[in-house]
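Supplementary Text 2. Reproducibility record for the structural model of the 171-residue chain.

All settings were left at their defaults, and a single model was retained for analysis rather than an ensemble. We include the record here because the model underlies the residue-level annotations in Supplementary Table 4.
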Amino acid sequence: MAAIGIIIGSATTLWAFTYGPIASFLDQWKRMQVDIADLQKDMAQVKGEDRVIREVPGLTYVSEPAYQGENIIFNFVAERTRLGVGCILEYSQPMFTDMLNIATPGKRREAARQIKDDPTPLRPGYGPPAHLRPGRVTVYLILAYSCDGKTVFDQTTTAAFELLPGPRPAD
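Retained model, structure tokens:
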């Protein structure tokens, strides 16, 4: 009689874990874990933790007035993320877009200093391409980092400015 009880108990337990309510609970638990992992990934993306740097919102702009034939000053405030702590900035490459909506690279600039772990104001200067048309222009920087022997790219927020016909008028 005890053997029959053990067999029935084992069969009931096996059924509960395979097809019954416990199996349903374990499936829901597994789905919840996947949902939590996706939520953590999405939150890291929103907070900028999946990037090498995080920019302070609203502090990326180009100093104006900007004239053809002169360097522009790209102002931004950024800090390293946990992902970017071990990374070294190698160079930055500006990408300009004028009224023709064609992205055109400016002159690449080697890194003069590194971005710190706390908000760091930066003001690098870049020469726009000679054929860039006057008017509304946008620019962003492609940043190249060396992270554990691998090259990793990141980019800044786009900044818009008015490019005035050059040369700058004499004062």
